[in-house]
Inverse folding.
């Protein structure tokens, strides 16, 4: 005889916070501050070139979050977003592009392609942020990419990228940062000192105890700053390191200025401004 389940409480059907969460939203809240990033890029370009940039290309663009911020700034601003991951581009179209004003959305072009082979009209700015170019693990491949960027820029264009380092960059460790409804966990799971390749994960732990493990996975080369500067120079760029300044407690204050010397901190993040 069939059981009568009409009044049965289906407690197992209640989803956890991890199951309900969107990993891309969690990532953006944990890792990105596109407002500050665009503030930096916009101000440095204006200072160096004595004009405001209009055209920007974002390589390894992911959700297009940064490009969306760019087109919001001025009515003449345009952005080209390039990424090989079709899934994340679809997410960006649905969750980012559709939230723009129609005239802003028209000024964004999304291209699902490889940054190593893509050809676009010359732009004033190219971005490769969040250490995304570290996915290119070989020196020759990275130099080839930098050379392609060089030809993708107008004659006085600027390539903006970032880097991290310090002795903790080579350690196998976990760093936890509390957000409003979850904890962001950066997991440096494996580092091979022979070839410089690291395996990293991003996990999220929620208030109800549920977890989203390996929400993001990265296997990349941990390039040193001298290596990056050498490769940029070989590609034809004139790079300058913008080093983060410290507050009274010795912590980074989000202000980046040109430097030729930096402190040997446990961990640091810097911008690199590569001019043609």
């Amino acid at each position: 005889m069939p059981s009568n389940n009409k009044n049965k409480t289906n407690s197992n059907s209640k989803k956890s916070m991890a199951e309900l969460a969107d990993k891309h939203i969690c990532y953006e809240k944990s890792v990105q501050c596109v407002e500050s990033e665009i503030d930096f890029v916009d101000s440095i370009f204006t200072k160096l070139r004595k004009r405001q940039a209009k055209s920007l290309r974002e390589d390894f663009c992911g959700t297009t979050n940064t490009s969306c911020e760019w087109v919001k700034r001025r009515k003449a601003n345009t952005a080209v977003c390039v990424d090989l991951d079709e899934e994340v581009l679809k997410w960006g179209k649905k969750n980012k592009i559709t939230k723009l004003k129609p005239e802003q959305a028209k000024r964004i072009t999304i291209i699902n392609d490889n940054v190593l082979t893509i050809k676009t009209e010359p732009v004033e700015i190219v971005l490769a942020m969040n250490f995304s170019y570290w996915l290119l693990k070989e020196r020759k491949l990275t130099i080839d990419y930098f050379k392609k960027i060089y030809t993708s820029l107008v004659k006085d264009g600027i390539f903006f990228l970032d880097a991290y380092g310090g002795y903790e960059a080579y350690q196998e460790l976990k760093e936890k940062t509390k957000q409003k409804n979850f904890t962001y966990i950066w997991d440096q799971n494996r580092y091979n000192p022979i070839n410089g390749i690291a395996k990293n994960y991003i996990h999220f732990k929620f208030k109800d105890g549920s977890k989203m493990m390996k929400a993001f996975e990265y296997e990349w080369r941990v390039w040193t700053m001298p290596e990056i500067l050498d490769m940029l120079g070989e590609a034809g760029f004139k790079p300058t390191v913008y080093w983060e300044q410290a507050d009274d407690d010795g912590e980074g204050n989000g202000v980046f200025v040109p430097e030729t010397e930096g402190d040997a901190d446990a961990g640091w993040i810097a911008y690199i401004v590569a001019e043609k």
Q: What stands out?
A: Residues 34-49 form the longest helix (16 residues).
